[in-house]
Amino acid sequence: MSTAQELVELQETLYTSKNPTRRWLHCQRRDWIEAAIKQAGAGLDVALEVGPGAGGYLPALGQQAEQVIASDIESSYLDYIEQKFADEDKIRCLVDDITASKQASDSIDLILCTEVVEHIANSQAALIELRRLLKPEGRLILSTPQRYSPLEMTAKIAFLPGIIQLVRLIYGEAIIETGHINLLTEKQLKQQLDKAGLVIESEYKCGFYLPLVAEFMGETGLKIEQYLENKLRGGWLDFSLWTQCYVLRAKDE
Length: 253
Prior knowledge:
alpha/beta, Rossmann fold, 7-stranded mixed β-sheet, 43% helix, globular
């Protein structure tokens, strides 16, 4: 199975996972992002998703914009999108490196970049390019994991040779290595956003994961995690929540 095929299989199972915590972690982020897309307003000319994966957000973007571009640096990742949305005239795929995009400046009304920058070594260059592509009144929706969240810290152990097979056995569904090479803290990301010329309009953190509780306590474990998430959000320990999410605009010149 190719890497692209594995990615699609994984993303198709995340939102329907048999594990309550795994399902909640991804559905919670998805729901926030879809709400942010809707709040961006309808009647837009062009929306762009960088790194669309299995294309789960493309229909939502299509409801807001006349044209939707799905871009990725790897053409193999876009093959599935082209097949899945073959009958959707407004969706087109573009092989493009977001650290040095070939797209025109000030050309995009709404950009979605969710769970992408952690896969890019030079995230600063990517953010600068995202800012360049935005129209003056455009919006960027961005999400990425927090570097020191329990889930990311545990993943460093879970994906070690020998252990990954046990994890797959416990979950009973597709599990592949995250490929996260550039995990950022909130402080690090905000510094890069500022340097790129982006201003935060709204932000949100979500997803508290407790090792073993998530794997073996089912719905009871999920209730514990949800309770703790509500207690941690907004406090000095909210670095432990898995995902940081933002709606951004360009700085006023």
